[in-house]
Amino acid sequence: MMEYKGYYGVVRFDDDAEIFHGDVLLARGAVTFQGETVAELKQAFMDSVDEYLSFCNESGIEPEKPFSGRLVLRMKPELHRAIAVAAKRANKSLNELITRKLEEEFGIAA
Prior knowledge:
Layout: E1 2-4, E2 7-14, E3 19-25, E4 32-35, H1 38-59, H2 77-89, H3 94-106
Antiparallel strand pairs: 1-2, 2-3, 3-4
């Protein structure tokens, strides 16, 4: 997966057309790109993100924010209770406990 300015590109290969096609994730509307080589594909991805941001700016549209840092979760009440108890025992907030566990799981430094 490619990343540029907080946006991610997912790529697939079209065997019939012998070309790479990609989609920019988390952008408003369909933002796509394509290329025949890896270098072309990377440049097309960056160009598509830049064009998307420019279009939003010129149109007065707020671009989709790739990640706000806020996440609403739904879970079983039993799991919620267990996490709340674990957080209390660790003298941490629910947010801090869950964030630390996710950072550990995905290898992201605190």
